[in-house]
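Exercise (ungraded).
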Amino acid sequence: MFEFILPNAWLIPLVPVLAFALIGLFLHRWPKISAALSIFSIAIAFILALVIAGGVFSAPAGTVYEFSTRWLDMPGLQVDMGLLIDALTAVMLLVVTTVALLVQIYSLGYMKGDPGIASYYAYQSLFAASMLGLVIANNLGQMFVFWELVGICSYLLIGFWFGKYSARNAAIKAFITNRVGDFGFLLAILFLQIMFGTLNFGELSDSMAGFTNMTILIPVAILLFCGPIGKSAQFPLHVWLPDAMEGPTPVSALIHAATMVAAGVYLVARAFFIFSAVPQAMTVIAVIGGFTALFAATIALTQNDIKRILAYSTLSQLGYMMMAMGIGAMTAGMFHLMTHAFFKSLLFLGAGSVIVAMHEEQDIWKMGGLYKKMPITTWTFIIGALALSGIPPLSGFWSKDEILLGALASGHIGLYIIGAFVAFLTALYMFRLIFVAFFGSNKAGAEKAQENSAVMTVPLIILAAISVVAGLVNSPLMHNAFGHYINSPAGIEPHPSLIIMISSTVIALAGIAMAWLIYQKQVISAEDLKYRFEGIYKVLYHKYYIDEIYAWLGARLVDGMAKVLYWFDIYVVNGFINAIAYVTAITGEVLKFTEDGQVQTYALYMFAGIVLLLVSALYAVYTVLI
Amino acid sequence: MIGLTHYLLLGTVVFCIGLFGVLSKRNAIAVLMSVELMLNAVNINFVAINKFITPNDVTGQLFSIFVIVVAAAEVAVGLALIISIYRHRKSVDLNDFNLLKW
């Protein structure tokens, strides 16, 4: 089984893409059949991924299966297409197919009655195919193709309800913001192709070993990191992710929490040998990641929209992963990517469940007391939040600890402090959300809320179960099996430390306790805090005014540039053309007086011309001959 | 003894008279006559050069016959044009024929 699947791993993206084509071409009139086909195809992909993962994890660690075929061959340029299957790929395949399968099943309930179900499932299938293709690519060029494909799927699904003005705008914003990052990514790919003559990860890794020309490698590594900055929504290109919440909630769970935004982290892990060769680039990654983690967590404290809180939480956690990559703890970053994919998609699906029950209400202050009405959603949501906050023995605890451990082990004390503080903030904003939305008194809209059908709650329960146990694969209980397989030679493998475990648990519990005091017991008044720190509150509530700054800069830069170019067009380009016309016209005005309509005058001109030619010819002959 | 030079000089003089007539006469008939003078000056040259330089060929004489034929046709067309213009404008003065200008 494994022997057959492995060289044919391209089947995994092919199955969903077939589903996409069938739905798009023939089945779009029958939404139920479309949905069934899409779910069936991702289920097949899931089974194939399971087989591959089984094969990879039963082989010795470090085994790499690569299959490559020449796609384009011309003098000076060979382009290959191929598959690269190793532990990293296997983990991503499992994560993507699991979450995609559960999200597609959940969507049956969430999208019920929507007129666009068939196209929704077509996009979902296309997304799954592109994401799986991205994961198994064995070279950067191929990866870039799928990278753009997931981008276009993200665009289509954010703008799925394109009747809404805000959804259209959010889709465009996401697409354009990603363009900025992808421009750098593409430049880096071109540079690498020119410098090394290959884009294959293995060959690049080999040529990198003897390469010491840092002056060119530093900009290339940083340009390469531009791609992840855009796709994984790191500061300063993070602005699109919160707006992307305009899409359907299952889309937010799959694309904008679990998989696509993690593609940036995956790229850093995949090309880790490039970054780890350039300490400056590593510092940039770590600082941007750490800053994004802190920055987004503080914003999440003040938001009122349930999905936006989760979106900023996603930003913050992606920053965490990037920080892990930057400090060299690649294993920890990938581990956190995996656990985060499960518990964050759980949280988003839980939020979706609440939104359905509340009839599209997303303001947490209008919820309240939901735990009595929706027990399954509430408890799975709490499990997700506990996992995110890093309470042992849930998955987030293990992965977050490993990042903090990596920060300390590599001597980044500042980043450790940021990480620990972000852990505190994470617990605080998550339990603020829980205490306000699920506990407390019933608000008007929450009276009639009901638990959703099994098609929505079962995926929640499954994801909750995974969120509880997923962390164990890299715990000392299982001898760090995950790290054993993923760890690259360049990475560092920290040893578990009891002190960090206890301290981070205490930090998380402190965050929860503070949320409990403020929002449940109301010992500390939230309103009071808001007025006492009004300045800070306003800045946070308005997301540090980043969108406003971009709008202002955009207006200044684009309008200013347009003014300059307009002036140039009117006075230089047009001026030049007009000058030619003017000179021609003036010449004509002067010369027209020679045209008096008299045939004899013309004859005279002709005669004068002949005489002139004759004289000059004679003169020429005279000077040459004599 | 009259030689080639004399004939060529005669041709030149007749050509110049014709040219002067073409450029300065205001009467269209006179201009047409002057053109005839120029053509005949060329004929003189053809015949003289034929006689003095290549006496065994008759190319020059042949050419002058051609010129005379063409000139006859030209005069026929020219006179027809002049008559046509005269019927429209009641004039054969070239100064009146200045419609084609700015």
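Further reading is listed at the end of the chapter. For now, observe: The interface with chain A takes residues 19, 22-24, 31, 94-95, 97-102 of chain B (CB under 8 Å). Chain B has three helices and no strands.
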